Amino acid sequence: MSITSGSDDKIMSMGCIDSPSAASSGGNVTGSGPLKKGPWTSAEDAILAAYVNKHGEGNWNAVQKHSGLSRCGKSCRLRWANHLRPDLKKGAFTPEEEHHIIELHAKMGNKWARMAAELPGRTDNEIKNYWNTRIKRRQRAGLSIYPPDICLQALNEDQQSQNVSTFSYEDRPSPDLLLSNHFEIPSVEFKNLELNQQLYPQSLLDVSGNSLLVHSPGSFHSNNSSFAMMHPAKRLRESESLHTGLSGSLGDLFPAFNQYQDDACEKLAHSLGFSCAYDHNIHANHPSTSCLLPGSHALLNGNSSSSEPFSWAMKLELPSLQYSDTQVGSCGSPSPLPSRESVDTLIWSPPTEQMQLDCLSSRNSGLLEAVLYESQTLKNSKNSSCQQTPNASLTPDNVVDTLTQNLHRTGWEVYGDPISPLGYSAASVFSVHESISRSSTNEHQSAVTVPGFKIKQEPVDWVSAWDNGKDEVQPQMIFSRPDCLLGSNCYNLNL
DNA sequence: AATCATAGCAACCGCTGAAAC
DNA sequence: AGTTTCAGCGGTTGCTATGAT
């Protein structure tokens, strides 16, 4: 649309800030008026269109100078690119386009311009807005973003990429970059991983730091997908946010926790026959703790502005250089001082009680211990109502088998996991089907308590929640990001 | 009918890399 | 080699329309 509201009279005093020439050139052709800001009028559109049709695109500051428009070149370019270009496709995205966008986003992250290049007639701005809106919607609904076919696709590609020693950024930015050495992962993280191996089953830890990253392409996804490619200064600057992402998924720093999350979740799901849609809120007060997934693309990728519910997960600010052996240590390491949020993530599912206690006894963690204690307390308070966790003999292999069986069996027909705050772990996505598909109503509300967990299903309209019918037409299982399959959630698949 | 919340969209802003000087 | 200019990208903001209460 072309807004021609009264706000047109917003005026820039200096032209575009980052367009010195525009500013210094004195604004419009008359040199008398300051540059306008705000919505374009149809008259301005006509002038710009006429100018560009005559002189062609480019040299936008010249447009501003010679067309008589009181707009900076940058603004002209934007207007032309987003609204006046003759090849623009107007109107809502078609389902095909939407699917394509999702695919592209799964591959590229927030590379709007690149995505736009693959969607003829669509602009980066359009795609970006669409995506952000979509994220918001799904976020609100507690749904994840990516449909399963895309997750599978990403999984396949990821596996292929592991089989090929050479790779191209163009083809697969996120995971491949993580394969590269450009990314400065503190080695200590993986030293600690080794330490942790005495605490956790080897089978769960048989993942090197590198492979962990390889399997978690989304761990630093999106904003960080180009991390390795970016300017060193930017890298330095973004390292903080990167580590936010890292720590937003503490599992990357604490792989074992992720693995236990997944494993325990899987076990629970299988043993109880319902989804592992655990509720972080049992440990935290976060109203919306969805998608704190290792490598949660939804989280890191979507524009998680500070006003967004996701922002809490982004608040964890651990300066990149502050990771040290002591800080990144495993369970109970001295003063990791994670934010409460990260601890929430960390602690949602202690592997076993004994393990937890062992861990604590060997390393006094202070805050961590406190949280564990709280968790324990909560757990105990719930124990009376649900004491048993049958089928505890599940081994990782069993889990994998069952998981993969479910993968095929369910045929991806499952709706999104509306309640998994951890972002639709493998367990949740594979088993949520059980509880959902049996329901005769669209609304679910139930709460199941098991030792150490509170599996709570919040009310979600399963039909409308799927993007209010605006998204993929058919209900299907979704993930917050394909890397939920590729990540530590899924590394078992490669055992 | 009024108010509020949300969605959708357009535009702006800051930054970056490449090209030109 | 260093600086300036330009074009483009991605994140954010602000406005309007619409729906819910």
From TrEMBL:
Protein's UniProt keywords contain Ribonucleoprotein: no
BP GO terms, sorted: pollen sperm cell differentiation; positive regulation of DNA-templated transcription; regulation of growth
Record-linked PANTHER family: TRANSCRIPTION FACTOR MYB33-RELATED, TRANSCRIPTION FACTOR MYB65
Classification via Gene3D superfamilies: Homeodomain-like
First-listed, main subcellular location of the protein, grouped into a coarse class: nucleus
InterPro entries: Homeodomain-like_sf, Myb_dom, SANT/Myb
Locations listed in the record: Nucleus
Myb-like domain span: 32-84, 85-135
GO molecular function, one term: DNA binding
Record's keyword terms, sorted: Activator, DNA-binding, Nucleus, Repeat, Transcription, Transcription regulation
Domain HTH myb-type residues, every copy: 35-84, 85-139
Native source organism of the sequence: Ilex paraguariensis
Name under which the protein is recorded: Transcription factor GAMYB
